[in-house]
Design a protein that fits this description.
The two termini are about 80 Å apart. It is rod-shaped, with a radius of gyration of 41 Å. By secondary structure, it is α+β, with helices and mostly antiparallel strands. The protein has a 4-stranded antiparallel beta sheet. Helix content is about 55%, strand content about 25%.
Length: about 170
């Protein structure tokens, strides 16, 4: 009798659990469809965010490259500025030649007065007077000189433009 009762109750129990699982599957399927809809709705925003992130990464790379290239970009304008500002105070003197070598920058020029040559050498942070020669030009006694400039300024930082702090922060992020 107990077996008959169990046989009779088993389809009802099976049906109860089947319906309960079917409702749960239906509910989860509905939630899945809602999530897919939300994902579709947010997809353009995600794509735009990815594009902006890629653009920001490219911009950071270019800013880092620009910062690297800017270092030393003002070298010759800085050096010529130092020479120009210094030579203004030394009257009756002329620079005739300026060339770069492995040891530094080679300067040649003329002056009417021999005592002006040390003033020209003192314009630079590290310079060596190589030669001084007397010459007569147009019945005038003049002095030709050669100077080897090892270092124009105490610090090479004057040859690089300052990097704004905002750019530094962007590069470091």
């Amino acid at each position: 009798m107990l077996i008959l009762l169990l046989i009779f109750l088993s389809p009802i129990t099976f049906n109860y659990f089947y319906n309960q699982n079917a409702r749960e599957i239906s509910s989860l399927s509905s939630q899945l469809d809602q999530m897919k809809g939300k994902i579709k709705a947010i997809n353009p925003t995600v794509e735009k965010a990815n594009e902006l992130s890629k653009n920001l990464s490219t911009l950071k790379t270019k800013l880092a490259l620009l910062d690297t290239l800017a270092k030393g970009s003002r070298e010759w304008s800085g050096k010529l500025g130092i020479l120009d500002n210094g030579i203004k105070d030394v009257k009756s003197s002329w620079i005739t030649s300026l060339s770069k070598s492995d040891k530094g920058t080679f300067l040649q020029g003329y002056t009417l007065y021999r005592n002006r040559i040390p003033k020209i050498v003192n314009i630079f942070d590290e310079a060596t007077l190589l030669s001084v020669n007397d010459e007569k030009k147009r019945d005038e006694q003049i002095y030709s000189f050669s100077i080897l400039v090892s270092k124009f300024a105490k610090s090479d930082s004057i040859y690089s433009p300052p990097t704004p702090s905002e750019v530094k922060k962007l590069i470091e992020q």
